[in-house]
Amino acid sequence: MLDRLKKEQGFTLIEVLASLLILSIVALAFTAYFSNALTFAKSNQNKTIMSNLARNALVYMQKQDFDRMESYFESGIATVVRPGNSPGTERVGIAPETFGSCTNDTSGVCVFRDMFENRNLEPLRAVLEPRVNGVQYRVVIEYQKELNRTEAEGGALLLPIRATVTTAEAGSGGPGADAVTVEGYVNAQSIR
């Protein structure tokens, strides 16, 4: 029995160090994988937040006065939210600063503040400039005139709009927070 115990040997120091080296290399590979997974999860979280903010803005706009909103979009004084390449091709809509100076003013775009319930612009500002998880976002509502159909095609009952959400400061939302756009329609009161 003593001979058998003498023949048994443990691991040498070199074998232990080699196995630790292999184990640490494998652990580093897993660390990189989990780091990438965390970045991907944060990116998806930012896109989800921005998508929900865009949907929230569309729902808010769908509850406003259809006729006044259509008049605003078709007026020559609507806010240009995206310039066009040639005259008349710009996109109009509502940006956070559109009604920013409308306290008691009744000129310019402020004439259309009555499209919002009780002429109250605070809910509009909250929808267009939300802050979520310490990040300030900016929502722009854009009228898609090229999608609007004629009255014979049922266009008189729908206003095609899109809500685009970006962060107020570039890069402040983290990875995946470039811009999210959601499209929808504002229905006329007669079909609500």
From TrEMBL:
Species of origin: Saccharibacillus brassicae
One term under GO cellular component: cell surface
Name of the protein this chain belongs to: Prepilin-type N-terminal cleavage/methylation domain-containing protein
Pfam families, per the entry: N_methyl
Keywords tagged on the record: Competence, Membrane, Transmembrane, Transmembrane helix
Location within or outside the cell: Cell surface
Regions crossing the membrane: 12-34
GO biological process: establishment of competence for transformation
InterPro entries: N_methyl_site
Main localisation: other
PROSITE patterns (UniProt xref): PROKAR_NTER_METHYL
Keyword flag Transmembrane: yes
